[in-house]
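Notes continue from the previous slide.

Worked example: a multi-chain complex. Inputs as given:
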Amino acid sequence: MTRSKMRAAFGAGAILTAGALALTGCGGGSFDDGGGAASDGELTSSDDAISVLIASSGEAEATAVEDAVAAWSAESGVEASVEIASDLNQQLAQGFAAGSPPDLFYLSPDALAGYADNGSLRAYGDELSNAGDFYAPLVENFTYEDEFYCAPKDFSTLALIINADLWAAAGLTEDDVPTTWEELSTVSQTLTTDGVTGLAFGPEVQRLGAFMAQAGGGLVTDGAATANSPENVEALEYVKTNLEGGNFAYATDIGAGWGGEAFGLGSAAMVIEGNWIEGAMRNDYPDVNYLVAQLPEGPGGPGTLQFTNCWGMAADSPNQQAALELVEYLTASEQQLAFSEAFGIMPSLETTADAWREANPDLAAFIDGAEYAQFLPTQADAAAVITDFNAQLESLAESDPTTILDSVQGNLEAVVG
Amino acid sequence: MTATVTTPRVGSRNSGIRRGEAAAGWVFVLPVILILGLFLLIPVLMALWVSFSDWSGRGSPLSGTVNFVGLENYAAVTTGGGLAERDFGISLRNIAWYVLLVVPLQTALSLFLAVLVNRAVLRGRGFFRTAFYFPSVTSSVAITILWLFLFSQTGVVNAVLAWIGISGPNWFQEPSGIVHNALAGVGITTGPEALTQTDVLGVSLWEWLAGPSVALSAFILMAVFTTSGTFMLLFIAALQNVGVELGEASMMDGANGWQRFWHITLPQLRPTIFTVVTLGLIGGWQVFDQIYTGTEGGPAKTTVTPAYLSYEAAFTRQEWGEGSAIAFLLFLIIIFFTLIQRWALRERGVSKRRAARYEVKGGRS
């Protein structure tokens, strides 16, 4: 390349770069200004259509949400559309970066802190007319730095799912449903036969955390990391002993993708799963008879975990007023019961619990757990700690619970602060 | 012809019939420059900026609220001492084993296949060429799903292993490293303290030496299976350019088939080997699709690759700076290894010792 050609090439590159910087720079600046103002003051209001982005568990959920949003749209006169995400995290991130996020979207508690920190979210919880009707732990789950960010759209808890036929075949009766850890060990041993494991669950804290709760432990207590507490050690020791005994097993170790699959295939007589298993059993394994019981109590009393998502609202949304009304519509009692019927969730409103219990008497154990359910830490970056914890739990049978929990404690302290 | 031919003076752009050619040239390449600049150069530069900034993923990374933080993001993944460093260490451990096994295996296999299907005497050459090439044109997502089935607990691979009395592992759920497994086979289950107590990037040397996990090994087999076809094609093309004269001459000298391949054919394939190894290295270090669609890094993080970690850090954990920093570290690693292998495969002069072998003995007297 001659000197002049080189200069020309550099010149062209520089002009291009400068042009692009100017373009993107301007765009970014104006979005930031708009967003910053909106998240503190009044809700924005305009005639803009509302876009909703959801991650659907399947056809039933997608249709139910689409129908509900369409019904609200017809009633309110505000245009609204639902998009089903193929990768919710990625699509949300793209929307926020481009300054054109969906107005409303499914938001998981572990993503809340990250998006709240960078100002992507509008904290609207306290402005909901039904703000006081939600279960308190759910509100706490979506409260970050003392602000109630978003309305929990529904929730699930873990319970013990028992294969009724295997149960009867092993000579067990309704009185044998385990209520303590000892009984759980005993019945799972009774149910373990060649090719069937007594109790199975996924190799993750999203299941084993229930044992930690039953032992009286938890990952974060009163804002401090308590991962290596004696209670948690005891819980993992208990699980480890039973894994070694062969009466407990990880679903993935007995050739299933998750607990529901192990249960449906009959390779596990009992599993610890949430109420989503009801839909899976109905669709994939309609011939399996099962019953649902509350998880047994541990030395620390009853314990389970709850899982939930909320309706996140974008700080950049130009029509937050209408979005808020849509959230109120979607989380109203009747609508949540309709969702429940369509795809098996539990309503996030405490006031709707009795109606749900009446409609789903066989699944009452799930909603009974709501009173004492714990949830996993939601601090920014806690998700990475959980992922690391899960990676270590996979080899729990060969590892020392204290060592695992000590390393989790170290990681968690860095996050909780 | 005696008349002098007038050649246009080199470098005189502003006169004669060639006037304005340079401008026309620029106009013709402008679309490419624009497209490459807009979709390649600028995004890369922006990513580079993000890796030095505290951009949180909202609005433009070039807006006034984003600050320059120097090497902070790079430090977090290389010296931070926390999870980010350990994850990066684990991902490098995984990918190093992956590349170490995939590149030689796929190069050797593709060369072997090429030699095989290049033989004129082989019946149904076309069929075999197509068969070996087929996996390369299939989507990696489809192959990954196929692999998940083949290597499941009750899959075909384990069924075949069962015929010969081996109880196969639950491939994609097995986090133990194959080197560790082999050592455990001879009774060594814990490493010497020198290895277990020394950490590099938050991962002990003993863990670095664990080898690819069983799950990653399944991915290694898959990579070899899917890429050998493409590289076989390159080798076939190169083999067809190898002249027969040298081979015939060496036959006269009494070289057998293996000697002809090793001393005549292979040296002539050097440029192709360079291409194949380079492409293999780059592709190997950047593995993403298979992990994203297959295991998402599990079991126990043993299939986390830097490319996947970069994606995960940015899109799931909102650590955009860290994600870009990992991407650029990966870029540096790839450049480094490409240079190394360019150096290793350079053309060398024949050494005196070697040359002596070919000298005619007793020629001078």
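Summary box: Residues 88 and 286 of chain A are 30 Å apart (CA to CA). Residues 1-39 of chain A have pLDDT under 50 and may be disordered.
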